[in-house]
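User: Fold this; tokens only.

Assistant: Input:
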Amino acid sequence: MRKTHAISFLLSVSLLSKFKGRSLKGLFDLRPFTKILSWGTFRLYQIIKGVRGVLNGFEELLGTEEINSQYDEFARGHRQKRYIHRMLKTLFMLIVLVFSFTSASAAEYFSIPVDAANVGPVTQANAEKISADLIRLYFVEAFQKTQKPMMIQVLWEMPYFGAGVVEEAGPVIAIKVFGGMIRNPEMTEDILAAVMCHEIGHVIGGAPYQDVIDAEWTSVEGQSDFFAASKCLPRYFQMLQPRLTNVQLKQKIELAALGFFLISQKYATPDQVSVSLEKTAPEVAIELNRHSYPSDQCRLDTFKAGAACLTEATCRAPVCWLPK
């Protein structure tokens, strides 16, 4: 069976910092586990159905001749893959998610269910439109690199704060975005696009790469941020508003990044130093960090540096994570 791995669940990794005190005790409480497992069983059925329909659904979803020709070539070689491989892959991922979300529940982690009253303006339809637009922009490039079709799944019922990319066995590179984060009261469409662009950056952002086992093909966190700001967001925003100047694009990208990290610090990483567009991270990297996140301010600096590529002759990721 091919390898399956969940990579960079965008802020869900912060759960590890919560395994202390009463949170550690709650980790072994079976009540949240059984509740989430019940929900997860239903989601497993839905995911399996979704994966099963991927090969038949990409042509209708994407609808361009260039993409369809690449997909047809891919599909001819993979339609005979055994369904059990996909089911086992999905089961493995579910076990990882159940463990994470059990600990999340025990730690009273950020959660906004579908029926919550206090939600933001971004709807499921908005999120799916953003994901479809970004797939149209980057499907071919991702396929050329990975030889697998890339998709973005809006997991609307998932109540937690997170997003990530998963190389699923056989058919797809799947970017998954959780509904709880999308429903955040401070979320905007621009911020959500920045999140999705970061995840696309893991797939096609290029070197430097992570040293996490089975994830060596994915760009490090800092490079994913830099790709999002310098490549993905400018292309996406220009598609929506072709008349934007480079200066306006730069400001739009910086504000989207700032908005995300303010949301993150409010709900997922409250232990981080407050971020600002007016300051820079003090750290200077001596060695490249290939397996964890830079500080929030360093990541915001990375978005600023990427956006600066629009207005400056030369640009570079900041030294807070990329050594000179």
